[in-house]
Amino acid sequence: MAKLIYSHQRGISLTVGLQGHSVLINDYFAPKTCKVVTINLDTGGVREIDSAAVKEYARSANPDSRLIIVPDAQSVSPDDRQVLIKMELMYVSVPIGEQAGQVGQTFKPRWYAADSNSGQVLLEYRTGQFPKDW
Predict the structure, then answer these.
(1) H/E/C letters for each residue in 39-63?
(2) Which of 2, 73, 74, 81 is in the most buried spot, having the most CB atoms within 10 Å?
(3) How confident is the model over 61-76, as pLDDT tens digits?
(4) How far from 34 is each of 19, 85, 101, CA to CA, in Å?
(5) DSSP class of residue 127?
(6) Model confidence, pTM
(7) 86 near 36, Cβ under 8 Å?
């Protein structure tokens, strides 16, 4: 018998943790938006874990308000205790198309290692590439 563990309105991508006890979900619940959720398969507990990474990105990168940047979970640690979240440039909101390239170049790539239960940011990586020491 199948058991519903998560419902959504639009689309998701998911990764099952290596220990098999958790699921990491990117929930694309509306256009140009994403939230990162973990589900404990043993308890059924659902937690949104991206808010600390979003706040830390706003503080450390001070992004242009015309950039729409969303969290996107990329990986789970071998023990399922950490999640790697990449801040993705989703859209550049400018009235004139020619401005998009200039404004888009102000985007600062960041990755965050976050606790998979609380979402607390543990490490910040200031790189456009997947962090090798993750």
Answers:
(1) EECCCCCEEECCHHHHHHHHHHHCC
(2) 73
(3) 999 999 999 999 999 9
(4) 25, 12, 23
(5) -
(6) 0.91
(7) no
